[in-house]
Amino acid sequence: MLCGNRQDAEDAVQDAFLAALENWGRVSGYDQPNAWVSLVMRRKLWRALRLRLRAKRAALDVAVPSQALPDETAQARRVLTAMAALPPRQRMVLVMYSLYAMTHQEIADDLNIAASTARVNLHKGRANLRRMLGLGPDTDPLRDVLLLAVGDRPPKERLAAALDATESWLCSAFEAEEQAPSQARTDLAGRHRRGTGRR
């Protein structure tokens, strides 16, 4: 959700963990080493986005989680498509603020921009995303787009609820992908045992 490109995201995560391994003597002494890894990952993504301003955005290709309802999948894909259409800085700031619960100053420090620039990009990103999802002030969101409820969020936080639901959907999809090779090996072994008569 930070960059709109799965390959770039995987590369940044891998690079961040590699950096943690190379600097483990120092990183292991931090109160939250995972926060350091997350910071390195976001900075790597930000640098990559700035260097590739004219590159085409690749589609996010993930399997549908087995337990996801059709409405959840449709909503997640709609949100992801809209997120990918946002300018890179707006997308980064929006995700960092809405999903990472970072302050404007923390975002500014991460991206090496002014806090006022972070606020402006958050405002524009939210406005653009609301418009793309049909949540503008001149529309009836209950009629124009289905946004599934998440927890007890009030209606004014429907955009944040959509982002939360999409993040959960993505996590489930990636988890299902990680389990797929193991499940395939188990199924294959079971077929082999049945074929040879072994139990």
UniProtKB/TrEMBL annotation:
It comes from the Bacteria. This is RNA polymerase sigma factor (Sigma-70 family). The keyword Calcium does not apply. Residues 176-199 are annotated as: Disordered. Residues 2-50 form the RNA polymerase sigma-70 region domain. Residues 77-129 form the RNA polymerase sigma factor 70 region 4 type domain. The lineage of its organism: Bacteria, Bacillati, Actinomycetota, Actinomycetes, Kitasatosporales. InterPro entries: RNA_pol_sigma-70-like, RNA_pol_sigma-70_dom, RNA_pol_sigma70_r2, RNA_pol_sigma70_r4_t2, RNA_pol_sigma_r2, RNA_pol_sigma_r3/r4-like, WH-like_DNA-bd_sf. Keywords: DNA-binding, Sigma factor, Transcription, Transcription regulation.
